[in-house]
Every structure is written in structure tokens, then in C-alpha cells.
Specification:
The structure holds two protein chains of two kinds. Chain A is mostly helical. Chain A has a single domain, classed as MetI-like (MetI-like fold), CATH 1.10.3720. In chain A, about 80% of the residues lie in helices and about 0% in strands. In chain A, helix 2 crosses helix 6 and helix 9 runs antiparallel to helix 10. Chain A is globular and about 65 Å long. Chain B starts with a helix and ends with a strand. In chain B, strands 1, 2, 3, 4, 5, 6, 7, 8, 9 and 12 form a ten-stranded mixed β-sheet that branches. The chains are: A mainly alpha, B alpha/beta. Chains A and B meet through helix 2, helix 5 and helix 9 of A and helix 1, helix 2, strand 2 and helix 8 of B.
Chain lengths: ~240, ~280
């Protein structure tokens, strides 16, 4: 197929040509999705850990809901955030719609449940091994959560990466709350959607390849960081 | 060590927020225009907006969606100016007090495109409704927007005049894509289906495949674009002054010339007709 070979040629040209518009789009993609993952981590890591070390009525329901929320369709997350941030919505006065901040919020809504659910599982496995020891030391619940999160950090790094992968690759939420405005809220995925709608399939696919290369780069960096963390853990 | 880890995370968080919250051109005034995909995908905005921004210092941020969604977004107050192509819906928007006044801006036309093999035998016809009737009769595949857009509204009106309700055959030969013009054209191109499209999107569309124009020139295929300032009395945050400046410029000789001078492959895509 012409489109496929054309796509690799386009991707090569885009990367080598170092197009300033493309650079702007890539930087915004990374800013939005990394911010969303950090915020979602600040919410999801403690929330997931808290659920895993606490016993309360309805806990099974909470876990089921957390797991189900991992399948939240991006367009639904986008719609919910749109309804909140629209001028007709409760937070409309903030004027955040069609800004990168709105995109960060939408992706945080999307990613926080994933991080929370995966963290809960990771911590629960660890909790079984450490529970008695921690109790013997008389460590309170918040101390226990902090300790377990720290002990599980290597695995949780992968959890954050999964969240980043979800955030940087989704289009439904950011196109709705960001509006895909040129030079303001256009990111990799919305640019791909736009080129597809123009019928410029090779350029769209080329951008897709660039996106994959960037995600690969982020994962490689994270892998190095993770080795550093793991190395220190064994030191 | 825990402390160092936490402080690294916090520093990263603060840094990323600072980066995000300091857009490079925060001091520049801007307006949000709710508009339709045809004006964006055809490249018209890329051609005219820099001219306006240069003379006025006002940045124009375009949200390009289907006309139906653009009107809904504007009705929620999420925009300063509405620039779409569905005259009766636009007039209703003004009547409900959501917009100030509607102005004619420019026009082009719709065309029916289809596979070059022309299974319905409609090539060269000049009556769009008759052509649709023949598509229905032959059961040839037709890809509809199905998204309440300006193009979809026009298509529905043509079916009505043909005395046919294609919704009954939805999923059979009549396919409602529920998506934008480009996505619908991609579908039609891949399936060898007929479709109604505005000429600007068609000319700029790069994945035509086997599709060619089958029907054009019917007076009913006229496609008028209008522009409306979202009512600042209804939504206090609307940037009335800047929005009106944009509308005035579009209707001025300079703006109309900018619209008329936009060409793609030697063809004019939009014809200015502000009064």
C-alpha cells in the first residue's frame, strides 16, 4: 500500500526536518500528559494504597468500581470535564475550557483510576508480607501507606508508565475539552485526527510513528531511572 | 532517601505546572470562534486569520467541529463568534437571544461525489433530489454524515424533496457515519459509496481514491456561510469588542478580498457575499 511506505517517509521527514510546528505539538503533548500523570499519581497512589491496607464495609464495591473505571472511555471523561468547564457548567467562570489546563484535568480524570486500581493490587500483594512486621513496629496507617508505597516503588513506576501511555495516546478527551486549536491546544493525537479527516493518511500515519518514537523515548528514559531506583534499593 | 524521592516528585510537579500555566503569548488578546470543519480543513482559516491578526492584534482561536455541535457549544457560551453554514439554525440561534445578529459572509456549493463506475447512473445530472432518488432505487451505498451538521441538514432536505426516507434503510445501503466530513469521505472512498460534501472540503481532501464528482450545479446545492456574535448580554464573558472587530473585518473589503483570494490548486473555494 502506498500509504504505508509514504507514512514512513513522512515520519522520517518530520523527525529529520525538525519542523517547528511539530516540535510545538510534541512539547505540548508531553507537558499535558506528564502533568496529568503526576497529578493522577498524587491522587491515585495514596488512594490505591489506602484501599489496600484498610478494611471497611463496601470495600469490594469500591475495588470493583476502581477496576471498572480503568475502562472509562476517553470521550466520556472528556464530555464530563466539558460539562464542568463549559461556561454553562458549574466551573465555567474559571474560563479553563479550550486551554491546556482543561486537557490536563481530563487526562487526570482518565488516568487516576488506572493508577489507583493498579496501585491497590501491587500494594495488596506486598501488604500481606509486611503487615505483621509493620504492626509490630507500631506504625500507624499513614506511615504504613508511605512505607508500602516506597517498598513497591519499582513496580509502581511501571504503573505510572501505563498511565502515561494511556494519557499520551488518547484523543477523545483532549479534542473535546481542548478543541484542537492550532498553536494552543493541538497535541499529537488531535493532529493525527485532523490529518486523517483531511484525507492526508500518510501524514497522519507519519505523525503516529513520531508519537510512538517519542513514547519509546520516554519509556527508555524511565527504564534508566528505574534501574537507578532499583539499584539503590538493593544497595 | 524517601525525602529525596518526594522532593524530586514535587519539584517535577511544580515545574510542569509552571510550564503549563505560562503560555508564551498570555498577554495577547484572543477570541474563540466556533466554526465548522470545512472552513478549517480546506485551509481557509490558515489563509485569512494571519492577515486579521496582523492588522488587529487579536488572535483567533478556532474550534472546528460540525455545525450542529458548534451551535450547541456557542449556546453554552463557549465561544465569542459563531461561523457556520446552516442558515435556519443560525436564525433560530439569534431569535433565542443567544446571538446578536446574523450576517451573510460567503458561499460555495455542495456536490454529490461517487465512485467513477457510477452504479446508480447519476453522473452529469443537475437535479440533486432526482439523483438521490436514483441512488435509493438502485440501492447504491450512500455515506451520510448523520451528525446534525450543516451538510447533514442539507442532505436531509434533499431526501425530503425526493420523497424518500433513507433512515429506513440505515445500515443497509444508507450508512450514517455519525462523524465529520473528512471521516465520511474516507468511508465513501473505501467503500465506493456516494456522499454529499461541500466543495471546499472535497477539493482539499487528499484521499479521494476512486471518487469523482457526480452531481453539481443544482441551485439547491447552494451553501451559504453566516457569522454571528455570541450575545454578550446573555454571556457576560463574551469578548464583544474583539469579536465584533473580527466580524466587521470579515465583512470589510479587506476581509472579503482575503476570502476570495484563497485558492487551492488554482480553484477558488469560497465566494465572498457579505452585504
Amino acid at each position: 500500500m502506498d500509504d504505508l511506505s509514504g507514512a514512513f517517509a513522512q515520519a522520517f521527514r518530520l523527525i529529520v526536518g525538525f519542523d517547528p510546528d511539530l516540535l510545538e505539538i510534541v512539547v505540548l503533548s508531553l507537558q499535558v500528559s506528564l502533568s496529568a500523570v503526576i497529578l493522577a499519581g498524587l491522587i491515585g497512589l495514596p488512594a490505591g494504597a489506602a484501599v489496600s491496607v484498610t478494611r471497611f464495609p463496601g470495600r469490594a464495591v469500591v475495588i470493583a468500581v476502581m477496576n471498572a473505571m480503568m475502562g472509562l472511555p476517553p470521550v466520556v471523561a472528556g464530555l464530563a470535564v466539558y460539562l464542568m468547564l463549559s461556561r454553562a457548567g458549574p466551573l465555567g467562570d474559571w474560563g479553563l475550557l479550550y486551554t491546556p489546563s482543561a486537557m490536563v484535568i481530563a487526562q487526570t480524570v482518565l488516568v487516576a483510576p488506572i493508577i489507583a486500581a493498579l496501585t491497590r493490587q501491587a500494594i495488596e500483594d506486598l501488604h500481606g508480607d509486611y503487615d505483621e512486621q509493620l504492626r509490630a513496629f507500631g506504625i500507624g496507617r499513614s506511615g504504613m501507606i508511605a512505607t508500602l508505597l516506597w517498598e513497591a516503588r519499582v513496580g509502581l513506576f511501571t504503573v505510572l508508565l501505563a498511565g502515561f501511555g494511556r494519557a499520551v495516546s488518547e484523543v477523545g478527551a483532549v479534542i473535546m475539552v481542548g478543541g484542537n486549536i492550532d498553536h494552543v491546544t493541538r497535541v499529537m493525537t488531535t493532529a493525527i485526527a485532523l490529518e486523517t479527516s483531511k484525507g492526508a493518511l500518510d501524514l497522519a500515519l507519519g505523525l503516529g510513528i513520531v508519537l510512538l518514537v517519542i513514547v519509546l523515548g520516554v519509556n527508555a528514559l524511565a527504564g534508566l531511572l528505574r534501574m537507578g531506583v532499583a539499584g539503590r534499593a538493593h544497595a | 532517601m524517601t525525602k529525596r524521592f518526594l522532593s524530586t516528585v514535587l519539584a517535577g510537579l511544580i515545574l510542569s505546572i509552571i510550564l503549563l500555566m505560562a503560555p508564551a503569548r498570555a498577554d495577547e488578546t484572543f477570541i474563540i470562534v466556533q466554526s465548522t470543519t470545512s472552513t478549517q480543513n480546506s485551509g481557509l482559516f490558515d489563509h485569512i486569520l494571519p492577515v486579521f491578526t496582523e492588522t488587529s492584534g487579536i488572535e483567533v482561536r478556532v474550534v472546528a467541529v460540525g455545525t450542529g455541535q458548534a451551535i450547541k457549544n456557542a449556546a453554552n457560551g463557549d465561544g465569542d463568534v459563531l461561523l457556520v453554514h446552516a442558515q435556519s439554525a443560525e436564525e433560530a440561534f439569534v431569535e433565542e437571544g443567544l446571538g446578536v445578529e446574523r450576517f451573510d459572509l460567503m458561499y460555495n456549493d455542495f456536490v454529490i461525489v461517487g465512485p467513477s463506475g457510477d452504479p446508480a447512473g447519476i453522473a452529469g445530472m443537475t437535479d440533486a433530489s432526482d439523483a438521490l432518488a436514483m441512488i435509493a432505487e438502485s440501492g447504491s451505498t450512500f455515506a451520510s454524515r448523520g451528525d446534525d451538521s450543516g451538510t447533514h441538514k442539507k442532505e436531509q432536505a434533499l431526501w425530503q424533496e425526493a420523497g424518500i426516507d433513507p433512515a429506513g434503510s440505515s445500515g443497509d445501503w444508507y450508512l450514517e457515519t455519525g462523524s465529520g466530513m473528512g471521516a465520511t469521505l474516507n468511508t465513501a472512498s473505501a467503500m465506493g459509496a456516494y456522499a454529499l460534501t461541500d466543495r471546499a472540503t472535497w477539493l482539499a481532501f487528499a484521499n479521494k481514491g476512486d471518487l469523482v464528482i457526480a452531481v453539481e450545479g443544482d441551485a439547491r446545492l447552494f451553501n451559504q456561510y453566516g457569522v454571528i456574535l455570541v450575545n454578550p448580554e446573555r454571556f457576560a464573558h463574551v469578548k464583544a469588542e474583539e469579536g465584533q472587530a473580527f466580524i466587521d473585518w470579515l465583512r470589510s473589503d479587506e476581509g472579503q478580498d482575503a476570502i476570495g483570494s484563497y485558492q487551492l490548486d488554482g480553484q477558488q473555494l469560497f465566494f465572498p457575499n457579505a452585504k
